[in-house]
Amino acid sequence: MRTFRRFLRERSAVAGATFVVMLVLAAVIGPFLDTTPPNVINHALIGVPQPLSPAHWLGTDLIGRDEFVRALYGARVSLLVGASAMVVSFAIGIFYGAIAGAAGGFVDNLMMRFVDAMLSFPTFFLLLIVAALTNKFSLSIIILIIGLTSWPGLARLVRAEVLSLRERDFVEAARALGASPARLVLRHLIPNALAPVVVAAAFAIGDNILAESSLSFFGLGVQPPSPSWGNMLQDALTPQAEAAPWMVLVPGLAIVATVLAFSVIADGIRVALDTSIGQATAAEVLDVEPAPYAAAPA
Amino acid sequence: MINFIVRRLLGAIPLLLFISVVTYAMMALAPGGPAAVLGPRGGGLSPEAMARINAVYGLDKPWYIQYFYWLKQLLLHGSLGTSYVDNRPVIEKVFEKLPVTIEMVGLALLLTLIIALPIGIYAGAHRGSFFDNASSAIGFIFYGMPVFWLSIVLIDVFAVQFRWFPSSGLSSLGQENNALDRLWHLTLPVVAIALVSFVSWMRYQRSSIIEAMGSAYIRTARSKGLSERDVLVHHAFRNALLPIVTLLGLSLPALVGGAYFVEYVFSIPGVGYLTFSSIFARDYPTLMAITMLTAVLIVIGNLLADVTYAVVDPRIRYA
User: How many Å lie between the alpha carbon of A42 and the closest alpha carbon of chain B?
Assistant: First the structure.
């Protein structure tokens, strides 16, 4: 409860959380209120994309489909993939890291060398190749691909956390009381290592949304005509779309705003959980690994 | 030191072998291959012809046999095989695209540092100020920005609306050897890369300045009566530059594979573009070569980072 109240004091984080809640509501309820079908071509409007109007809030695309409705359906895809892929990668990463950290010695060494190897693959390159080779683009496959390629960094984080917890008195006490290794990992190590994991989770949802939209943009994710923010941008890549800037702006700003919202939420949780930071500046934030899609460094 | 480098290089061998096995297995077990690539073009091949093609490329053998053959070719002949698409040696194909990507990403890295370092230093020295908060807010926005979207926006604004820069390609017709024309074509892609990547550099510089400002030698410098500016420029800055120098090593792989999005959107014929066309053509030998090149560069980059760190910072010793 104290943590929650501290979170509420972070204005940017609250704004981010409000945005995400509204987005979730819109994505879930929206299509019931505005029943315009997202994929049906309006033959009267082919080749003449309509600007923003009361009939089409965010305009239409090159074949007369309503951008607002498509963006809503796209939000469903993005949120679903972002959250589910996070669950997949965290389920693997948490247990992998906790087991490596708790086991120590040779097992730990071997497990972490595997993580090193995974991290030596350029992440997005791996993602592209796997997606292209699987050649099946159902939502569950996309979720699995993103989830299965993004856990190694988390495994490292959890292991480091567990290593520092392992020597603490309460773990010592549990061991002295005869707790089995499994009980030690499940009841003592993992729950106490959760704080940084929660922060990483919020960042991961944003990163996964970026990954999904990148895949879809290159035709390796959600397949048209089903809308996703990524493949809506792909539609905007043709020269005919130059007269319709909203086709670029609507999905693009949706991605930027959503990823931004998850980043500030992550930051807010970090501040709220970490009593030692107290009144941290809003700037203490981006000291995270740069997104793999951010091209250049590291 | 020599000892350390040799040990690290030896340690990299199993890592590279592992990466090559996994990648090879992944590609070999996926559908595709030359018969599938050539098939549709030949108007549908007979099963016998398919089998003949597969035999030519050794694809009728199990994947681990194929892998050992690939490894043998690499170790004995330094060859990574020939492309399924045009039958040229893949090493030749990759190295012919390499200069373009290195040039583009190198320029982008330069621009990134020019933007990021001063901002990072100023923000770190004035922690909590308006400038600090504003720069990190802007950083946040760029952190969540897909680089392909930024590229499209730059094209729409500066190529389509204002017509200041070309929207794609590497040179104008007949101007292939004109360096200025090339630079003009590279401006938008370079700016796009720099804008999305300056954030992390800025953050690193900022936190390393903050860390340096809290250390004992800064207190000493201050107590000697130096001005705050002298403290920052001559003491904090020089030491805060160390982590940045090591980061340069880590960004080495990005020089090769870091810019596929930008190359794709701007139609720049570099390694990233080759990656995409190979993926869509299922040209596994070429993909294999690009993966291995990137993995080797990651290993070398990590090593370089450690070594430069030891060279610029005498406190660090490797046994």
Answer: 26
Give phi and psi for A292, each to the nearest 5: -65, -20
d(CA A126, CA A124): 5
* Alpha-helical segments (H) within chain A: 2-9, 11-33, 67-103, 105-120, 123-134, 139-149, 152-166, 169-176, 181-183, 190-192, 194-217, 229-235, 246-273
Residues 25-44 of chain B whose Cβ lies under 8 A from any Cβ of chain A: 26-27, 30-32
pLDDT one digit per residue (tens) for chain A, 298 residues: 677 888 888 888 899 999 999 999 999 988 888 777 788 788 777 877 888 888 787 888 888 888 888 999 999 999 999 999 999 999 999 999 989 988 888 999 889 888 888 877 766 677 777 777 776 678 888 898 899 888 988 998 888 888 888 878 888 888 888 888 888 888 888 887 787 888 889 989 999 999 999 889 988 888 888 899 999 998 888 877 777 888 889 999 999 999 999 988 988 888 887 644 333 333 333 333 333 333 333 2
Name residue B89's beta-bridge partners: B82
Q: Distance between CA A235 and CA B172 in Å, rounded?
A: 27
Number of DSSP helices (H) and strands (E) in chain B, helices first: 15, 0
Characterise B269 by phi-psi region: left (phi > 0), alpha (psi -120 to 50), beta (else): beta
Distance separating alpha carbons of residues B166 and B159, to the nearest angstrom: 6
Q: Is A95 on the interface with B (CB under 8 A)?
A: no
Tell me whether A291 touches chain B (CB under 8 Å): yes
Mutate to test the interface with B, among A120, A203, A215, A242 (most CBs of B within 10 A): A120
User: Taking CA atoms, what residue in B is nearest to A235?
Assistant: B152
What ipTM was reported for this prediction?
0.81
Question: If contacts are CB pairs under 8 Å, which of residues 149-168 in chain A contact chain B?
Answer: none
Longest dimension (CA), chain B: 87
Residues A10, A271 contacting (CB under 8 angstroms): yes
Q: Which two tokens stand for residue A97?
A: 């890291």
A window 224-253, beta carbon within 8 A of B: 233, 236-237, 242, 245, 248, 251-252
Name the nearest CA neighbour of B203 among B301, B130, B132, B128. B132
What's the farthest any 2 CA atoms get from each other in chain A?
77
Decide if A128 contacts B279 (C-beta within 8 A): yes
Q: Which residues pair with A63 in a beta bridge?
A: A46
Q: A231 to chain B: nearest residue by CA?
A: B149
pTM score, two decimals? 0.84
- C-beta of residue B198 within 8 angstroms of C-beta of residue B109: no
Cα(A294)–Cα(B197) distance, integer angstroms: 6
